[in-house]
Amino acid sequence: MSDQDQRYMALALSLGRRTQGACWPNPAVGCVIVRDGRIVGRGWTAPGGRPHAEPQALAQAGPKARGATAYVTLEPCSHHGQTPPCADALIGAGVARVVAALEDSDPRVSGQGFDRLRRHGIEVVTGVLADEAARDHAGFFLRTEQGRPLVTLKMASSFDGRIATATGHSQWITGPGARRAVHAMRARHDAVMVGAGTARADDPALTVRDMGASRQPVRVVVSRHLDLPLLGQLARSAAEVPLWLCHGPGVDSERVRAWEGLGARLIPCALRGPQVDPADMLRQLGAAGLTRVFCEGGGALAASLLGDDLVDELVGFTAGLTIGAEGLPAIGALGLGRLDEAPRFDLVETRAIDGDVMTRWCRALIPG
């Protein structure tokens, strides 16, 4: 691949990231149209998933798209959904060459978009910045291939791995810079998820604040019994900001009616032992369209996800204070007897944020 191809693909990837968290269940795709060394069109998947990136870039390019090269971060779609196929739009515009990062794993598209372009005499180049694109589209691929969204587990803890004192006091362990970084991460995910214990203890809003967000992520709370405060922040805002409650079977019908009356969406899930089955819960969220979920704990929910190998990315914010053994641990019991049984992740980023340290770890199958 040429340096020029990599440069324009890097731009297309940056454009696609603009709507991460806002275009589910569609992938956040970017597209750049280049003719005679000049960018004549740019586009990215619109909030809500439509229009797609390619027709937006082609509309901006107009007649200059004829004979141009289109750089797209994912194989152009080839099926009729709510919009015509993007492959047909590229063919109709007369582009001469399409450079794509990845093939789409959706069986309605997989390889067919490329085949259609080639049959119409368009040169197709694939694999440009494929690792970067695989990271950006990991949630879309997981939902397509495994039926579940990508899960990022975030923890803010003391140096000794505690998230609260013995009395439950937890605000604030990390500083304002780290908290702002968390809001930016929330904005790039389709949903923010917590367990019932965290919802009861912290009364969180789970919204993106002070960043000019025009679209809020779905708030997901996992609560087997729906024993959540009906006068808390989540309840008060359920009619304005999406709130999904994942619960077990046999929940009290009055609680169900109360939460539905407030505007929440209730999602029944199977149980595994005394807890909501995390695998079934994620399948339900995938079926509802989510591709990227940002889990902010607490310890029991984090342990259940880790124990089932359902965490794809770890993000840790560590503060320079110690709380001691009597404090609340960041992760609940995993029941491990040997170190080789512990889930391991690859370190891909370390960054100082004001007085705290952010680390990001990915499982091996997700490029960092």
From TrEMBL:
Keyword Zinc appears in the UniProt entry: yes
A molecular-function term among this protein's GO annotations: diaminohydroxyphosphoribosylaminopyrimidine deaminase activity
Entry cofactors: Zn(2+)
Domain CMP/dCMP-type deaminase: from-to ranges: 3-125
E.C. numbers: 3.5.4.26, 1.1.1.193
Matching InterPro entries: APOBEC/CMP_deaminase_Zn-bd, CMP_dCMP_dom, Cytidine_deaminase-like, DHFR-like_dom_sf, Eubact_RibD, RibD_C, RibDG_C, Riboflavin_Biosynth_HTPR
Catalytic activity: 5-amino-6-(5-phospho-D-ribitylamino)uracil + NADP(+) = 5-amino-6-(5-phospho-D-ribosylamino)uracil + NADPH + H(+); 2,5-diamino-6-hydroxy-4-(5-phosphoribosylamino)-pyrimidine + H2O + H(+) = 5-amino-6-(5-phospho-D-ribosylamino)uracil + NH4(+)
UniProt keyword Metal-binding present: yes
Entry keyword set: Hydrolase, Metal-binding, Multifunctional enzyme, NADP, Oxidoreductase, Riboflavin biosynthesis, Zinc
Pathway this chain belongs to: Cofactor biosynthesis; riboflavin biosynthesis; 5-amino-6-(D-ribitylamino)uracil from GTP: step 2/4; Cofactor biosynthesis; riboflavin biosynthesis; 5-amino-6-(D-ribitylamino)uracil from GTP: step 3/4
Cofactor note: Binds 1 zinc ion.
Function: Converts 2,5-diamino-6-(ribosylamino)-4(3h)-pyrimidinone 5'-phosphate into 5-amino-6-(ribosylamino)-2,4(1h,3h)-pyrimidinedione 5'-phosphate.
Sequence similarity: In the N-terminal section; belongs to the cytidine and deoxycytidylate deaminase family.
Protein name: Riboflavin biosynthesis protein RibD
Biological source species: Pseudodonghicola flavimaris
